[in-house]
Amino acid sequence: MQIGIVGLPFSGKSTLFQAITRTVIDPHALARGEAHVGVVKIPDARLEKLTEIFSPKKTVHATIEFVDVVGLKKGESGSTQFTTNFFNNVKNNDAIVQVVRAFANDAVPHPDATIDVMRDVATFETEFILADLGILETRIDRIKKQLGKSGDAQAKLELPVLEKCHHLLEQEQPLRNCDFTKEETAILRTYQLLSLKPMLIAVNCDETQVADAASLVERITAAKSGIRTRAVAFFGKIDLEMSELSDDEARAFMGEYGITEPAVDTLIREAYALLGLQSFLTAGEDECRAWTIRRGMTAQESAGVIHSDFFSKFIRAEVVNFNDFVTHGASFAKAKEAGCWRLEGKEYIVRDGDIMEIRHS
Fold first, then answer.
1. What per-residue confidence (pLDDT) applies to 215?
2. 195, 229, 248 — which closes off a domain?
């Protein structure tokens, strides 16, 4: 899973990237327009507990890949230009984190001269909608010409879906917050539409805005609430400093400012919720591991995440939820005695925190 971080110049998007990935951006690579990619381990206290219990040879966390998306340019007037290169870079991501700046700093002036969080959010929204309209208009014209020459079955299926999206975009509605059927979603997936991608709006505050951060998030949420749009606050400068500290030092540092959690934890939790993700676990003396799946996936589909053969040769899954496992002595045998350990078939819907062992032929 790949999440792109975007933002206007001086919004703090690269600061956020460095804080959550604990990497240092090469300014020369940035000048060459090279995207930076960082893989972040997903914190999971359940996995740490299983590691403590089983003392495995290896512990493997689930991961998320973050990309510091490049491609925005400054125009002659000083305003930001959304280039084709930028749009192409955004298309490759499963979801988007849009960093918007809430802090004032005369040393690094905002490209639009003033601080206006809602204006910056709207800027990206408008650009994504316009880009999608361009793609859809070209495709709709092509399909209509194609249907005039022949009765292409796939084209007949696509046209009403694309026209529905075109109408929504003309009403300035981002597609991410609209309901689509599975069939419509399958058609739209091939187009990589920008306004369809889940969006996490990350408000970059400074140390003077800790008390005001929640109200900023509430204001954005009220204006931009939707199925796949969420908002959070983070503190770029503080988070970057904390990323260089030990865990104990970081906790003390957060306490000084009244911050409850680092940006990486906030972003991962919200990204999981935004994308409808959860984790199941496998545990044993060889390896304890967290696996990322979408909510609603079956035992057979989840087994396929481990290995494709596990999907095709699936027989049953041995399942106990982590909470039940710990409650009953952190023992598979005791969980079985308590009736919490069970055999499930291929249609079982996996729950967050299920510990599973896959039986396969």
1. 92
2. 195
Split into its structural domains, the chain has a count of: 3
What CA–CA distance (Å, rounded) separates 247 from 252? Answer: 9
Residue 77: per-residue pLDDT: 56
**CA dihedral for 129, 87, 205, 114, sign (positive or negative):** negative
* Most distant CA pair in the chain, distance: 73
Structure tokens that stand for 236 in this block: 């770029």
Q: Which stretches of the chain drop beneath a pLDDT of 70?
A: 27-33, 74-79, 151
Neighbours of 233 (CB within 10 A): 22
Task: Output helix, strand, coil percentages for the chain, rounded to the nearest 5.
Answer: 45, 20, 30
Gap between the Cα atoms of 56 and 44, Å rounded: 16
Task: Answer whether 83's CB lies under 8 Å from 74's CB.
Answer: no
Quickly list H helices, 105-232.
117-149, 153-170, 182-189, 213-224
For 20, the token pair is 């959550």
**Range(s) of the domain holding residue 160:** 126-195
Domain limit, last residue, from 195, 225, 245: 195
**Residue 350 sits in the same domain as residue 309:** yes
Q: In angstroms, how far is CA 63 from the centroid of its own chain?
A: 11
Task: Examine the domain organization and report whether 20 and 91 are in the same domain.
Answer: yes
Per-residue model confidence (pLDDT) at position 191: 93
Token readout for 180 is 């689509």
